[in-house]
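Look over this one:
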Amino acid sequence: MADSALAGFFTPRNIALVGASDRSAWSQMVAACFDLFGHTGKLYAVNRGGKEAHGFPGYTSCTEIPDPVDAAFVYVPAAAVVEALHDCAAAGIRNAVILSSGFAEAGEEGAAMQEDVARTARELGIRFLGPNSMGFANLAHGSVMTSIKSRKP
């Protein structure tokens, strides 16, 4: 898959965890999956306070991350997802998994927000899975971008 346009999506090395917080159970499960399956790339916590989370260095924006980032795992409130995508694009991140919920499954207002997310991602050139996605698991690569409580097979 190294030559595929989707390589950065399904085999990301450096990943921004957008919305990471030591207080969030979702965030804890996301971080635990990377650890459990031996992700070898770098992980970065991105949150409003720029605080470290789960032992990963913290930043207030993806643009502050000092290394190239292959993908973002986004789990901010639904109303903040479009802003997060703009931040990802400004940092050169073109792949995202959106865990955030509150979109089409929540009614008409959520469906409109979901359309806005899709339109924004298209305009910014970001491939994404979601919203309200549990992510994916590429066990051969150790990229388990999911929040599902897991254990090694």
In short: The longest helix spans residues 108-124.
